[in-house]
Design goal:
The complex is a heterodimer. Chain A is of the alpha+beta class. Chain A is 32% helix and 20% strand. Chain A contains 23 helices and 28 strands. Chain A has a six-stranded antiparallel sheet with strand order 1-2-3-4-6-5. Chain A has a four-stranded antiparallel sheet with strand order 13-12-15-16, with no helix packed on it. Chain A is flat. Chain B has ten helices and no strands. In chain B, α5 crosses α6 (127-142) and α7 (147-160) runs antiparallel to α8. Classes of the chains: A alpha+beta, B mainly alpha. At the A-B interface, α1, α3, α21, β24 and β25 of A face α1, α3, α5, α6 and α7 of B.
């Protein structure tokens, strides 16, 4: 459209919008020959139904409660009298059921989400799940209604405050002063009674195969008699309807989340998650603070996953020891260590209240050590402290836990060496940053190319294979107790890759951020030095040609997740330099398999930063940006549009247009790490420790990330990410990899 | 070093933002840049937009941290916060919101578009920021706005009515009122509203 025609269109529109429907038709039919080209556009504009005067401005938040548009209106048999609270999916009102003249609570699903199928399903599920439950300590669901285009849920009205507010009142009260209203939560026995009631309520819900999944003080309402009522099965998960849950996304209030919820390990969430949350509620009632700490969701989650809960008696000396044991038993990190049912917990609370000895036991040193070994991050944190205290103490802690661990069932590894040659096999334990967490352990000698199944520590590590003739290969593994792995090693000659790999002698570096973390939004951690051992890294990304050679040599098929369009491009590459372009659309598993096939591995995030000079040259980013200055990669629709007749395959279109072969002849001496930024993103071996993916997928840090572009009349504008994460199961279409290997010995 | 130094937003000539503060490797500050924008320097405007984005992202993460779960951020809140953070009341530019708001709105638009597209791929931003952007994107969806479609419509509008495209950006992504836009852009309020009704109908027709 030209500016002139647009002027005209506007004028016609303004004229026509003054008219009523019949007059508009006449108006449209009567358009002169000069304006006929605008008729379609004009008709469309006039037919538009503007949803609100403010469209497309977002509805503003924080509507004052008195201004709530539904207040005073009637839905079915219910008149909405006052706002009780607002949640993610709707507003809860105090309402009057007119036919019975009784007070109820009505939760109205927000209009803008009511239309959304998934939210509505959740709402309905909540209603159905909760309506099956009848227990004196559960808020009854009375009715699921629909009126005036609104979906609503009618529940018993519980008049009192919620447990959180009650706790605040109690904490603020004068120590000697008696409480006027409600249960006095300063008395541990009162807390025990209350939590026992909730445990009984959960027991009932669990017997009906309903999980609450969001047990927290705000969801416990107290009636005039001080009896607790658990409400808001908003996240309640019917055990039979797994698929409808929140796609594994972290859901719920972080402070009361169980570790398995925080990890978004959907498959591992069962009724014991509610037991943990109830334990967290008890902990808060008894101590005034939540068992996990942190200001942001990420920090809280980190705390739940990685920090031991501070023992209750250290928070509050006055808590009776048996009650503290009960609480800590519910809060075990591993579900197997907790009470196995809500009734067990309720029974134990009964025993405590009756003055009998309780079933809960203090966590044994062995159990604690095992939790620490499983949590390698914690070990990493302990080590510097231990070193500070003294090498001897450090050794005791480290080897002490090693020994304890040796008694449990450790994972095993079997190694086959290609060619049947003899080789020495070592294991290198890795810390959370995938750097050496201890000395190499000798696993044994592979005779005639075979090392029988050997025990290795649980967790991340590398299997290093060295033949007598100096060939070498290494293999990443991350095994849990009871797991077994068979590795086929293809040791290669490091000297043969001279010129392809850059050698770095490593050294102490101070990463400006938690090395396994992408969560830059939180404060930077205490900066500390970590050791990057000597390593070698490919100067270039793995190319299409190299990947094809690998497929041929290993007898593997092309990845099954490649789209037909992408396969077609591989079959008939439209660019002459195809074989020199970096390979993309490869999962981390396939990247690792490639590396392993050549005796290498993926670089760690720290090695990548080291190689691209992040620790040596303060202006590394500027240097890199100068070298990566042209917009290379654009996987979005505009690029595909510009790509024209090629298949509308985002990978193919953008890749063919923008990616460059990994050659930069003008690289200065000593900085031969080609495309350390901006050509394609590259997998690293390092897990993103603070960002578990949906469905419990783990994520890895990616480096040298690609350009993201946007096409505008002024040209392509770009955003560049130096770092990112990608989930292990994915094969990002702008992402490839390069290999690295350990040196030394 | 903190967030933004490792996730810079940059342009072809490679300017970078460190520490959530604005730096311009060529030596000029934000104020200089703004002066250039006022003088009609298009490159300076692009530069300011690029500098603004990390600030907006940092604000998103910061604001989100203070909010309870499930809270929805307004882009307006972000833009305002970023603006207040960049310019103190003592700054002579504080009162001249015109160019800055326009830049902020464009920066916000680019961030949301980038986010919407990124959601179609497998990349993720840092957590606080991701939640913040997610919440904004979701609330657009909640009010029936497809951010990507709107972006396309705005880009098309830019070709034949750049003035109203800018107004739309200010309205939608910086959340300004018509009174404010009228004052900023020097368009009489009534004219603005009449034009807007046509632009809006056209955009909705395009986006349908």
């Amino acid at each position: 459209m030209t500016p002139e025609r647009w002027e005209r269109l506007q004028a016609l529109f303004l004229e026509a919008s003054e008219l009523d429907a019949a007059e508009r038709d006449t108006f449209l039919a009567g358009l002169g020959p000069d304006d006929e080209d605008l008729r379609d556009e004009l008709t469309r504009m006039l037919a538009v139904d503007v949803p609100s005067a403010d469209w497309p401005l977002l509805p503003s938040r924080g509507v004052a409660d008195d201004d709530d548009p539904l207040l005073g209106t009637q839905l079915g048999d219910y008149r909405l009298d006052a706002v009780l609270g607002r949640g993610g999916s709707g507003v809860v009102y105090r309402a009057t059921q007119i036919s019975k003249q009784r007070t109820v609570a009505v939760k109205v699903l927000r209009a803008d989400v009511s239309s959304k199928q998934s939210t509505y399903e959740r709402f309905k599920r909540e209603a159905l799940a909760a309506s099956r439950l009848h227990h004196p300590n559960l808020v009854r669901v009375l009715y699921l209604g629909h009126d005036e285009g609104r979906d609503y849920l009618v529940m018993d009205h519980v008049a009192g405050p919620n447990l959180r507010d009650q706790l605040r009142i109690c904490l603020a009260a004068d120590p000697g002063q008696a409480l006027v209203n409600g249960p006095d939560l300063r008395d541990p026995r009162v807390c025990a009674v209350l939590v026992r009631e909730l445990a009984r309520a959960l027991e009932h819900a669990h017997s009906e195969r309903v999980l609450h999944r969001d047990v927290k003080p705000q969801n416990v309402l107290l009636d005039a008699q001080g009896t607790a009522h658990l409400t808001d099965f908003g996240l309640a998960k019917d055990l039979e309807l797994v698929d409808l849950t929140l796609s594994g996304e972290v859901a719920g209030t972080p402070h009361y989340m169980s570790p398995e919820q925080a990890r978004a390990a959907r498959d591992r969430i069962d009724h014991r998650t509610d037991i943990y949350s109830l334990g967290a509620v008890l902990y808060e009632l008894l101590s005034g603070c939540t068992p996990s700490a942190g200001d942001t969701t990420a920090e809280v989650i980190d705390s739940i996953l990685h920090k031991p809960v501070v023992p209750l008696h250290r928070r509050n000396h006055d808590v009776p020891a048996p009650l503290a044991l009960i609480c800590m038993q519910a809060l075990r990190r591993r579900p197997e260590g907790r009470y196995q049912s809500a009734s067990e917990m309720a029974d134990d609370l009964d025993r405590f209240l009756a003055g009998e000895s309780v079933g809960a036991k203090a966590q044994s040193i062995r159990e604690r050590a095992r939790e620490r070994m499983v949590d390698r991050r914690l070990l990493v944190r302990l080590l510097p402290i231990a070193l500070f205290v003294g090498l001897l103490a450090g050794g005791l802690i480290y080897f002490g836990s090693q020994q304890v661990y040796a008694r449990s069932q450790r994972p095993r590894v079997e190694v086959l060496v290609a060619g049947g040659v003899d080789a020495r096999v070592h294991y290198l334990p890795l810390d959370a940053h995938h750097l050496a967490a201890g000395p190499e352990l000798e696993l044994g000698k592979a005779r005639n190319g075979r090392l029988a199944s050997s025990v290795v520590p649980a967790g991340a590590g590398r299997i290093l294979v060295r033949t007598e003739s100096g060939l070498f290969s290494e293999h990443y593994c991350d095994l849990q107790s009871g797991e077994e792995l068979r590795i086929t090693a293809h040791p290669t000659d490091l000297r043969a890759s001279e010129g392809e790999m850059l050698v770095f002698s490593g050294g102490e570096v101070t990463p400006p951020y938690e090395p396994g973390s992408l969560n830059f939004a939180v404060e930077p951690p205490d900066q500390r030095e970590v050791m990057v051992p000597a390593f070698a890294i490919d100067a270039r990304c793995v190319t299409n040609g190299e990947f094809q050679a690998y497929l041929d040599a290993s007898g593997r098929e092309r990845p099954e997740y490649w789209s037909p369009g992408w396969r077609a491009i591989w079959d008939d590459p439209p660019r002459a330099d195809w074989m020199e372009l970096p390979v993309v659309d490869v999962t981390v598993a396939d990247a690792m398999a490639y590396a392993e096939f050549y005796g290498k591995r993926l670089p760690t995030a720290l090695e990548f930063e080291f190689a691209r000079g992040a620790y040596q040259d303060p202006s590394w980013l500027e240097t890199l940006l100068r070298r990566s200055a042209s917009p290379d990669f654009n996987m979005f629709q505009p690029a595909v549009d510009r790509f024209g007749d090629q298949p509308r395959d985002t990978t193919g279109g953008a890749y063919l247009l923008y990616v460059r072969p990994a050659e930069e002849p003008d690289l200065p001496e000593g900085t031969r790490l080609h495309h350390a930024l901006g050509n394609v993103g590259e997998w690293t071996e390092t897990r993103a420790t603070d960002m578990p993916g949906p469905q419990g997928h783990s994520a890895r840090l990616i480096k040298a990330d690609a350009w993201y572009g946007e096409y505008s009349p002024d040209g392509v504008t770009d955003t560049l990410l130096c770092n990112g994460i990608a989930y292990d199961a994915d094969s990002p279409q702008d992402q490839g990899f390069r290999c690295a290997r350990s040196l030394g010995r | 070093m903190q967030t933004d130094s490792l996730e810079p937003d940059t342009r072809e000539n490679g300017r970078i933002c460190h520490n959530g503060r604005m730096t311009d490797p060529r030596g000029g500050g934000v104020a200089d840049l703004l002066r250039a924008v006022e003088a009609g320097d298009a490159a300076a405007r692009d530069e300011l937009i690029a500098l603004m984005q990390p600030e907006l992202r940092a604000c998103a993460a910061r604001l989100m941290r203070d909010q309870p779960n499930g809270h929805t951020l307004q882009p307006t809140a972000l833009v305002n916060e970023a603006y207040l953070k960049l310019f103190t009341k003592d700054d002579p530019h504080f009162t001249d919101r015109r160019h800055l708001m326009a830049t902020a709105a464009t920066a916000m638009r680019q961030i949301l578009i980038d986010h919407a597209r990124r959601r179609n791929t497998n990349k993720r931003h840092a957590d606080g920021e991701r939640m913040a952007l997610e919440s904004i994107a979701l609330s657009y969806e909640g009010s029936g706005v497809d951010v990507l479609a709107m972006d396309e419509a705005l880009s098309a509008l830019m070709n034949f009515d750049p003035e109203m495209a800018k107004v739309a950006e200010l309205r939608v992504f910086a959340g300004l009122t018509f009174e404010e836009i009228s004052e900023l852009e020097g368009i009489p309020l009534r004219t603005l509203q009449r034009k807007w009704s046509a632009v809006r109908a056209w955009m909705m027709g395009k986006m349908a």
